[in-house]
Write a structure and sequence with these properties.
CATH architecture of the largest domain: 3-Layer(aba) Sandwich
Radius of gyration: 23 Å
Number of strands: 25
Structural class: alpha/beta
Distance between the termini: 31 Å
Largest sheet: 12 strands, mixed
Shape: globular
Mean pLDDT: 94
């Protein structure tokens, strides 16, 4: 029998059919006035971060963290589920808000496409959010490169701090995939043009400025974080900071508007914050503390998404973000998909496209979900499994997931939000309310920040990844000594590893066992407030694929964009 052909509209076609409400009306439902907003046209606005003081005495809404199983090239749909859940709360008459990261231009024109959800669970205006939005990424890029320019100017003007050009760690940034700029030489052309040295570019999402923005509690806190940023080391090995270069004030001035959370809406007019976009491996992979805190004051249910699987940004949200923000999460949603489970169960990506029923592969892949559920419970929180349904998932495959969740004692719901919008998320919303409204405990971080750096890394590797232990290269041990000497010993750990495995080896799918995590390097992100431990090869400046998404993107004479996801 020939397989049924299902015709679906593209995300951009669906988004253009949406009936958006004026953003002033969306804000008014939250208790905000037009005076609290800076309008970017009729459907986008920034909210002055200081308005949260107006509701300082109001009890916080329930904070729900959306994470996932270990991601796969097949896609799990974490953002889509986040949006759909917010829409489902809205349909149930609940005051709800969602909060997402801002998309980077690099992935949009590279391989990933947009980052605004999908199907009938999207944040809109989709094209605007994916392309430039309110200029936050450009502000981050400018602040980052201002500091880079001041570093090189310091060298040119006599170098009174004694910066060693060979030990400058602050690179440049741009919001585009550009492999040719990963490593460059600056200062060529003779004495008037600067001091020759090796440098390079990172993508803006990997900038420490972005991490500072998303972890700051105020403009003054942001400026203080800028002052602490380490740009390099002297010939004697002493850390040199942006504060010593006198750059923090000007950098903060560039970020004066970017610090304000962005308000948009979903296809069903549920309010949504989209603010900040730190990487999920070299940084913490979550939207801003300011957006989440404001959302908790304005809503009964605040749904915030973290990047990649729970072992990466989920762990970092609970060990880093929640502690800097003073948050008390009530539950964690672990998003899974049948095709993602099949991939972890040994089905190759090409075979997944055929969508043949394979309950055995699903059951093998469920080991990965088992571990992520276990990881959530280590923090004293309830894991809620949301199975994001795709069109060709079969009843038997879905039943296998439901049965495993029953065995695990994990609350479970099927999410059909891609095809049905908020209506397809009602079961999930009801399950979430049941869990969070009855939650009487308090989440517990995995480790105390005061522990030695090695011990903190060991705890994460053993308890979250399931590793037998941790080994260190000579380079990592040298970096560790320098971090401790620079005052970074008491900071939390931001593990940087592949998102494609619980281990540091992307080839180890499912639930790897019998492995050791190798930390090959470390660096101090003193401004952001964490120590980055590098396990495996981590790319901070991606390249474009053989056939980048940019080849399909165009704009017509009327300004209508095509090909954007």
């Amino acid at each position: 029998m020939a397989q049924e052909v299902v015709t679906v509209k593209s995300d951009i076609e669906i988004s253009r059919e949406a009936r958006l409400e004026p953003i002033v009306a969306i804000a008014r439902r939250l208790g905000l006035s037009e005076q609290d907003l800076t309008l970017y046209g009729p459907y986008k606005a920034k909210i002055d971060w200081r308005v949260v003081d107006r509701w300082r005495d109001r009890p916080d809404g329930k904070l729900i963290v959306v994470s996932a199983m270990t991601p796969t090239p097949a896609g799990e749909g974490k953002t889509t589920v986040t949006v759909g859940l917010g829409q489902a709360f809205h349909r149930l008459g609940k005051r709800a808000l969602i909060s997402l990261r801002e998309p980077s231009l690099g992935p949009c024109f590279g391989i990933k496409g947009g980052a605004t959800g999908g199907g009938y669970s999207q944040v809109v205006p989709m094209e605007d959010i994916n392309l430039h939005f309110t200029g936050d990424f450009h502000a981050v890029t400018s602040a980052h490169n201002l500091l880079a320019a001041m570093v090189d100017n310091h060298l040119q003007q006599g170098n009174p701090l004694g910066l060693d050009p060979r030990q400058i760690t602050w690179r440049r940034a741009m919001d585009m995939n550009e492999r040719a700029l990963r490593t460059i030489i600056v200062g060529l052309g003779g004495r008037p043009h600067g001091v020759p040295r090796e440098a390079g570019f990172d993508i803006t999402a990997a900038s420490e400025i972005m991490a500072c923005l998303c972890l700051a509690n105020s403009l003054e806190d942001l400026k203080a974080r800028f002052r602490r940023i380490v740009v390099g080391y002297t010939y004697a090995g002493k850390a040199v900071t942006a504060g010593e270069l006198g750059a923090a004030g000007a950098m903060a001035a560039l970020m004066k508007e970017a610090i304000n959370p962005n308000l948009v809406q979903t296809l069903e007019n549920t309010p949504a914050f989209v603010h900040g976009g730190p990487f999920g491996n070299v940084a913490h992979g979550t939207n801003s503390i300011l957006a989440t805190r404001l959302g908790m004051k304005l809503a009964e249910y605040m749904v915030t998404e973290t990047g990649f699987g729970f072992d990466l940004s989920g762990e970092k949200f609970l060990n880093i973000v929640s502690r800097y923000g003073g948050f008390q999460p009530a539950a964690v949603i672990v998003v899974a998909s049948i095709r993602g489970l099949k991939y972890h169960g040994g089905v190759e990506l090409k075979a997944l496209a055929e969508a043949k029923e394979d309950v055995g592969a699903v059951e093998r892949g469920l080991e990965n979900l088992d571990k992520q559920v276990e990881n959530v419970r280590r923090f004293g929180l309830t894991p809620i499994v949301a199975l994001n349904r795709f069109l060709r998932d079969t009843d038997k495959e879905i039943a296998a997931v439901e049965e495993r969740c029953r065995q695990l004692g994990a609350p479970y719901a099927l999410a059909e939000v891609w095809a049905k919008g908020g209506a397809g998320g009602i079961a999930l919303a009801e399950k979430v309310m049941e869990v969070v409204d009855n939650f009487k405990g308090q989440y517990q971080p995995l480790y105390d920040w005061s522990l030695p750096i090695k011990q903190k890394i060991e705890i994460i590797a053993r308890e979250i990844y399931g590793a037998d232990g941790v080994s260190y290269t000579a380079q990592a041990l040298t970096a560790l000594k320098r971090i401790e000497a620079s005052g970074g010993a008491g900071l939390p750990i931001c593990m940087a590893k592949t998102q494609g495995s619980l281990s540091d080896d992307p080839k180890l799918l499912g639930r790897p066992r019998g492995f050791t995590v190798t930390v090959r390097d470390m660096w101090l992100s003193a401004g952001a407030g964490f120590v980055v431990a590098i396990a495996g090869e981590i790319m901070t400046m991606p390249g474009l694929p053989r056939e980048p998404a940019a080849l399909k993107i165009d704009v017509d004479a009327e300004g209508n964009i095509t090909g954007l996801f």
